[in-house]
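Data availability (excerpt). All sequences and predicted token strings are deposited with the supplementary files. A representative entry, DUF1761 domain-containing protein, is shown inline so that the format can be inspected without opening the archive.
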Amino acid sequence: MIEALSRLDWLAIGAATLASFVLGALWFTPLFGRQWDRSLGISRERGSRYPAIYYVVPFVSSALVSVATGILIVATGVEGWGESAALGLVVGVGYSAAITFTNAVNPVMPHPLAFAAITGSYHVVSAVAAAVIIGAF
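Structure token line:
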């Protein structure tokens, strides 16, 4: 695995990171923002600003997912966008969505299934997109 790290295409990792981050910005604001807020039991104030951590953590997480996906692509010998998409789907559903659903089911989450569906589906789409971008490089 360490050898796989040395063979990463860092431009591809950067592109996948940026794509995942931008997708998240779209997913959790104009596309599904209202539904996501309702699932959490909150409402956004028009014109309110979120603290920097609201942007920094998702960006760092997108970078970590992109690096891990790149390592898996190199280590497993995945080639082409089709195999990359399949790997992204396995990672997205098998890890990200599964963990999201598990974490959503807790006593303080007002609408756990809605939260898990919105957040989990973002993670699946993001993992597939990142894998395809990295695999295309």
